[in-house]
Amino acid sequence: MSWARAAAVSASSRAVVSATGNESLLTLLEGISGRTIRARIWRGLVDDQAAGRTLAEHEAIYAALSARDAPLSQAAALLHVSNTEQWLRQRIGSGAPERDASTRTPGRDAGRTVS
């Protein structure tokens, strides 16, 4: 994921949170925004499937918001944040900044060692 794409994703998150009118949540998001952009770029570099999964999660959030289904919107957002947090905790806990073994591409990743 490029810096520009990560910034666009961050801006869309900010727009969704702003629409809630929850100033506390917006302040929290603003406070962690820089770190989450770096994490998104890192994830995009080491996990070839991240963009597709993230897009599907964002589409689920958007669909729930469009349907004005508050419980489903909350659940979709919680799932998205939880999946991202779980991925990050696994990488930090293992100390493994390397590409996920499950997303290695034969040929392109040939010769790389798997931790």
TrEMBL record:
<feature type="region of interest" description="Disordered">
    <location>
        <begin position="91"/>
        <end position="115"/>
    </location>
</feature>
<dbReference type="InterPro" id="IPR011711">
    <property type="entry name" value="GntR_C"/>
</dbReference>
<dbReference type="Pfam" id="PF07729">
    <property type="entry name" value="FCD"/>
</dbReference>
<keyword id="KW-0238">DNA-binding</keyword>
<keyword id="KW-0805">Transcription regulation</keyword>
<protein>
    <recommendedName>
        <fullName>GntR C-terminal domain-containing protein</fullName>
    </recommendedName>
</protein>
<feature type="compositionally biased region" description="Basic and acidic residues">
    <location>
        <begin position="97"/>
        <end position="115"/>
    </location>
</feature>
<dbReference type="InterPro" id="IPR008920">
    <property type="entry name" value="TF_FadR/GntR_C"/>
</dbReference>
<feature type="domain" description="GntR C-terminal">
    <location>
        <begin position="14"/>
        <end position="82"/>
    </location>
</feature>
<keyword id="KW-0804">Transcription</keyword>
